[in-house]
Amino acid sequence: MCPYCDFAKWPLRRSDAARYLAALERELEAAPTFGAATLFFGGGTPNTYAPEAIARLVARARERFAPEGFAEVSIEMNPDAALCVPAVFEAYRAAGIDRISFGVQSFAPAELAALGRRHGAADVANAVAAARRAGFVNVSLDLIFGTPGQSLATWRETLDAALALQPEHVSTYGLTVEPNTPFADWFARKPDDFGSNELEAELYALAIDTLTAAGLEHYEISNFARAGRRCRHNANYWQNGEYLGIGVGAASYRGGIRSVATRDLGGYLAAAEAGGPIPGDAERLHGAALLGEATMLLLRTAEGVDATAFAKRYGVDFHEFYEPVLSEMRAAGTLDVTHSHVRLTRRGRFVANDVCAAFVTFAG
């Protein structure tokens, strides 16, 4: 299990895995009616299940939520040699999956070891090649910068190695030390093992310059894509669209209510097996909180906030409502403000969390 993420996770046990799969199927059957355009198998390691199980979930989800078919079906995969054999990719294609996101993180052996990854650079190349042979023309690679021991030189090597595989999409995420993880304990003991904020900014800048120079569009703070290959599933999140999550810790947004299912595996299994509601937390956003979250999501994208569309959807003049924040951020050089749009500048992308926080906390 990766030592840096705080996802709901457990050691793989066949009995628990089989029980969880059955619970997922029961929750899927009991889920409310929902018209979906995309399907995404996430959580890090769905490819630990047999491809037949994944195919069954795809088929049932399509029957329930997209009778005319999904516009995009993605699956996350660890590029471990044992999990990325040709038959798996062939089964995925036959099931209707058309996009693969590989959790590569790095091509540097020392960094992979620090991140707790079991694959090597050759495994990634072999996995991508196998996916291509099976007919996949939409492959994404996830990378992490800010890993302990990482330098500009090793990050440049990782970016170059990723581009050599000619992916349609690349995601670059700055390492976040999450509470209650092994990395949090490591940081508490040896904070100097982790890069400075200044180094992280240099790493991010190198990613932007390298990937855009290679022809990928920087269409969202952490995401780069070739023409026509933006992730449609994630785009719905950034547009504050509705979505339905199924599984432990899954998030949903429907009817103005944002909810997150329990991260307790036992509680989830008991509820799903009983056919009852899945426990978790829910919140209805309204007023300034709703506007702030919508703004935060939109500002992550290259298009930013479309003032006309914002007013039509939320009934608020964006420039008028947020005038104090816009004036401050424009003066700081973090926002490009025009009559029609508000976007992060290049400088703004480096402090996006702070910029977005200003909108989220603004009460009007």
Structure, described:
The protein is an alpha/beta fold and 364 residues long. It folds into three domains: 204 residues, Transcription Regulator spoIIAA, CATH 3.30.750; 34 residues, no CATH class; 74 residues, Arc Repressor Mutant, subunit A (Orthogonal Bundle). The strands form three sheets. It has a seven-stranded mixed β-sheet, covered by helices on one side. Strands 8-9-10 form a three-stranded antiparallel β-sheet, with no helix packed on it. Helix 2 links the parallel strand 1 and strand 2. Helix 1 packs parallel to helix 2, helix 1 packs across helix 10 and helix 6 runs parallel beside helix 8. The N and C termini lie far apart (44 Å). The model has no long low-confidence stretch (mean pLDDT 93).
